[in-house]
Amino acid sequence: MTGFRTLDQADVKGKRVLLRVDLNVPLQDGLVSDATRIERMAPTIIGIAERGGMVILLSHLGRPKGPDPKDTLAPVAAATARIIGRPVAFVDDCIGPKAEAAAKAMRPGDILCLENTRFYAGEEKNDPVFAAALARLGDIWVNDAFSVSHRAHASTEGLGHILPAHAGPAMEAELAAFSRVLDAPQRPLAAIVGGAKVSTKLALLGNLIPRVDVLIIGGGMANTFLAAQGKNVGKSLCEHELAGIARDILDQAKARGETQPGVDPQAVATLIVASLEGALMMSRIQRNDEALRRVQAHLNRYLDEEVSGS
Questions:
Q1: Which domain holds residue 159?
Q2: Do the domain assignments include residue 197?
Q3: Residue 28: how many other CB atoms lie within 10 Å
Q4: What whole-number distance in Å separates Cα of residue 146 and Cα of residue 131?
Q5: What percent of the chain has pLDDT over 90?
Q6: Strand order in the sheet with 111-114
Q7: Contact 117, 141 (CB under 8 A)
Q8: What is the C-alpha radius of gyration for the chain, rounded to an integer number of angstroms?
Q9: Measured in whole angstroms, how far is the alpha carbon of residue 205 from the centre of its chain?
Q10: What is the pLDDT of residue 215?
């Protein structure tokens, strides 16, 4: 997987670097209760500053539907300053006069954290006007927020059409891992896909089906596949309206399992998608414990018959 520029290749000296990071960290009583994500980003932030760049942090926090004090990034900026051992300025907006003035006042080595990008509807809509307003703050865009880059938002995708774009170290590492797994994998190859919604994973599932030998669906999205097969998921999270699409994916998986060449059918060689008859799904079935026991029983049967017998 090649064809992208990395932060190491960027000349950041004297440049304002819009650094998209994932600072969506848990807060308790107005303080960061788990700083793991900040700690992971610290080397990148410090590295840009030490190379003479001006670091402008872009992130979201929570799922606000407009400005909301409980989702402000102010305490996250303070926690970031403590972790990296450097001052981190904060401005309570991410576009407009306040943000532009703060960015203009920066000097090489400075670090600025902007307010929650999701305070504006244009972020999640990937609005070109909003993206252009963000772009006015910087000279270079670096995306180091792999965990949110499956969503084409203004700060995770739109900026790449306006400013010189580079992958940060964390993004680069993830893309390299993808390349090792998808371009020349050792087989049999299994993938586990989780999350709450099938609707946000359709492209991913379609891309994985022809590539993997085993696909295990987990999380809340497994319930949609269960419901599509007529299973009772009770009150668990489920996108019932996507039952037809789920059945199409199941059909593709079945065809892949039946026609896949070069894999021992007695090994882990059948593509498995959300079937109580076939595999474990770590789904949040809240109806009763019996449902979970059934899942475990089917997993055990699968392992005994398919894996141990290979």
A1: 7-173
A2: yes
A3: 8
A4: 19
A5: 49
A6: 89-91, 111-114, 54-58, 16-20, 140-143, 165-167
A7: no
A8: 23
A9: 15
A10: 79
Residue-wise pLDDT for 90-136, tens only, equals 999 999 999 999 999 999 999 999 999 999 999 999 999 999 999 99
Q: What CATH number did the domain enclosing 89 receive?
A: 3.40.50.1260
Give the pLDDT mean for 161-180: 88
Indicate if 66 and 152 belong to the same structural domain.
yes
47 domain residue, yes or no: yes
Number of other CB atoms surrounding residue 238 within 10 Å: 26
Return the pLDDT at 258. 55
Which of 113, 116, 159 shows the shortest CA–CA distance to 140?
A: 159
- 143 pLDDT exceeds 90? yes
What is the C-alpha separation between 213 and 226, in angstroms, rounded? 21
Tokens 């899942």, located at residue: 295
Please provide the average confidence, as pLDDT, over all residues in the chain. Answer: 82
Pair 97, 155 in one domain: yes
Instruction: Name the residue with tokens 């999640």.
Output: 124
Domain count across the chain: 2
Joined together, the tokens standing for residue 244 give: 């037809």
What is the pLDDT at residue 181?
80
Residue 165 shares a structural domain with residue 204: no
Pair 212, 155 in one domain: no
Write the DSSP string, 187-254.
SS-EEEE--S-STTTHHHHHHHTTT-SEEEE-STTHHHHHHHTT---TTS---GGGHHHHHHHHHHHH
For residue 295, the model assigns a pLDDT of 52
pTM of the model: 0.71
